[in-house]
Amino acid sequence: MRKNKVSNDDGNKYQERFNAARKSTWVSVIANCFLTLGQIFTGFFSGSQGLIADGIHSLSDLVADFVVLVANNKSKKNADPDHHYGHYRYENGASLIIGLILIVVGIAMLWSAINKINSPADIPQVHIVALWVALSALLIKEALFRYMLSVAKRVKSSMLVANAWHARSDAASSLIVALGIMGNLLGFKFLDPIAALIVGLIIAKMGYSFLYDALQDLMDRAVDVEIEDEIKKTLLATQGVINIHELKTRKVGDFILTDVHLEIDGNLTVKEGHDIAVSARNSVLKNPQILNVMTHVDPYNSKVLPVHLSPGNWTPGR
């Protein structure tokens, strides 16, 4: 009873998702090109390690943007004989790579900042131009984050959400860098490398979060309990479905694959049982996140209490 959900009717929706992701990512690429060059060069000439660290963070964003562009292009490919469910897991792979990039960048920043803190005599006096560049970068990154997150939510892309929050981490790091530069200008020179140290910690922590989530999804982690409950309710609301068991879910990109056993009246004909299973499947597929539903029909065992009536599973209205 397997059937590919992606049809010609859905083509426009997926193309719109691809186009929106590509546009928002190119906007991020252009912004990060200017930020990387401005921050790193200004950081070197003004003597601000924090601004240099922030510029390297922007550079990691630029690399992440190109990873997203490649993954977005690959994931839109249709199913083929070697990939029956399409290529959506390119997006999970992209999130994993972004996480690795952030961890490496974060650790490198921590190492550099610690070395500076251990040699306070080598910490230079920062020029005030570094402060203006840091504040400008803060405004640009916050605006970029809000734009990218709105697009990610509209097209329901976890990969774009990850990239948007990467931009937000840049905004947070720019704020910390600006504060560190202010402290340096006021005579507390050690605050600039401390700002770089905090930025490194933020980046490494976010990288670990992205890496962990991507690995879990690539290992077929089940979806949230709330989503599984909605699938159960939809199946049990289908006329002819008496009970369900062995409901399994897994992520493939931003979509969900579902397997389930349907218990129906064993006295029905094969065609009648098939029609009930098709009806149940189509009801679940109305959720745009569900890519495919594999159903298996079992004769109902009256000795087993249905899932929706068993102790601990019953709620009013079910």
From TrEMBL:
Gene Ontology process terms (BP): iron ion transport; zinc ion transport
Transmembrane segments: 25-45, 51-72, 93-114, 126-149, 170-188, 194-212
Annotated ranges, domain Cation efflux protein cytoplasmic: 226-300
Pfam families, sorted: Cation_efflux (PF01545), ZT_dimer (PF16916)
Domain of life: Bacteria
One GO MF term: monoatomic cation transmembrane transporter activity
Gene Ontology cellular-component annotations: membrane
InterPro entries: Cation_efflux (IPR002524), Cation_efflux_CTD (IPR027470), Cation_efflux_CTD_sf (IPR036837), Cation_efflux_TM (IPR058533), Cation_efflux_TMD_sf (IPR027469), CDF_Transporter (IPR050291)
Location(s) in or outside the cell: Membrane
Span of domain Cation efflux protein transmembrane: 26-219
Keywords: Cell inner membrane, Cell membrane, Ion transport, Iron, Iron transport, Membrane, Transmembrane, Transmembrane helix, Transport, Zinc, Zinc transport
Membrane topology: Multi-pass membrane protein
Family, similarity comment: Belongs to the cation diffusion facilitator (CDF) transporter (TC 2.A.4) family. FieF subfamily.
UniProt cross-references to PANTHER family, sorted A to Z: MITOCHONDRIAL METAL TRANSPORTER 1-RELATED (PTHR43840:SF15)
NCBIfam families (UniProt xref): CDF (TIGR01297)
Protein name, per record: Cation transporter
